[in-house]
Amino acid sequence: MLFLDALSAALPADRIVLDPDVVHAYARDQAAWAPAGAPVALVKARDAEQVRALVAVCAEHGVPIVPRGAGTGLSGGANAVDGCVLLALDGMDRILEIDAAEQLAVVQPGVVNDHLRAAVAEHGLWYPPDPASSPWSTIGGNAATNAGGVCCVKYGVTRDYVLGMKVVTGRGELVTLGRRTRKGVAGYDLAGLFVGSEGTLGVITEITVRLLRLPDSPPKTVVGAFDSLVTAGEAVAATAAAGITPSALELVDRYCLRAVDEWKNMGLADLGDVLLLGRVDTGDEREAAALQECFDRAGATWSTRSTDPEEAEALFSARRLAYPALERLGPVLTEDVCVPRGLVPEMLARIEAHASAHGVHIANIAHAGDGNLHPLIVVPAGDEEARERAQQAFESILDDAIALGGTVTGEHGVGLLKKRGMHHELGESVLGLHRAIKSALDPAGIFNPGKII
């Protein structure tokens, strides 16, 4: 095969994997409901020059490239397409620089989120974006999907921390985008454009991220229990209306708590039907008290404030464990809609209505403080009829989020699962702008084709 001969000539032999069993293991992310094609090869890049060489060969032969990091994505964005080369970037995992004075770090895309956070903490610094997959997900993957997490209600998402990057373009050129300075407005924000592009515009080989100083005060945790999703949603809306910005405000319902208990025996299921977990990191006790008052006024059955870090970490761990705990019960179709915070109660009510109308089981976790809801539709393994009903509920929830002035994805990305919803949200004129940008940056159409647009 001419392409494979050219690939072998361009890259070291130990970087190319053709064993079908190994290649297949890299062919999809965590979105079990999204289709995956049959790749022809896997390339495990070690540096930017190897990425550049691969892109040049693929562009010449018209072979698609699907970049991937740790494979923790939830939208099918890293799933193989037929005839593609899978480009694994997890081996490019070096932290190249930590500049404490300028409060920035330069990393390769395969650096794991939590590894970066631990490394910069030694310098008294903090990298805030913290998706639930932070122990495993990579900074490159976080940038590709513009990942958020627990802290983004106050501190923002990945795009807010990416200053610059190095990228291999569709013409096989390695270019530098963005800056290292605090301010800079020279030209279009191409670095920002690549954040959230899901590998469709080029391959990120290096990222410069902005850091913050570690908070001086230990966080205070506020917990409230509610007898319904809607009542918990009203507490979220009340918090926003009161002008309170907690560093985290997470929702976990009884289905998730029960699933975590059955798996980890943490004794959480008796705490309430729905929990709101708030965190305040200003050191101001009045802010924690005000957050608790919002919970109580909205109808909390009980609430409490705590400064015990172990107790707080157990509760937030339950939030992070909810998705894998539910996966043990059957295939999970994960939503990622985001609505205005004042409409969180209405959106939660609509989600419950769709569960009833379609006869499916929907558990709920949420970054409730910024209106980012994660309904989790669980179906019995092998039940194709239930699977079809779940897909119908999934699409109905997307439509409702748009109808309420929201978006089909807050942090997971579009990938394959959200394409119809995104087209509905943006409309043909805006999609045309997307296609024009894609064509300009990827003239051969080789980067992750079929994703997003």
UniProtKB/TrEMBL annotation:
* InterPro entries (alphabetical): FAD-bd_oxidored_4_C, FAD-bd_PCMH, FAD-bd_PCMH-like_sf, FAD-bd_PCMH_sub2, FAD-linked_Oxase-like_C, FAD-linked_OxidoTrans_Type4, Oxid_FAD_bind_N, Vanillyl_alc_oxidase_C-sub2
Q: Which UniProt keywords apply?
A: FAD, Flavoprotein, Oxidoreductase
Origin: domain of life: Bacteria
**In this protein, which residues make up the domain named FAD-binding PCMH-type?**
35-214
Q: Which cofactors are reported in the record for this sequence?
A: FAD
PANTHER family registered for this protein in UniProt: GLYCOLATE OXIDASE SUBUNIT GLCD
Protein name (record)? FAD-linked oxidase C-terminal domain-containing protein
**The species this protein was found in:** Nonomuraea monospora
Q: Which taxonomic lineage is given here?
A: Bacteria, Bacillati, Actinomycetota, Actinomycetes, Streptosporangiales
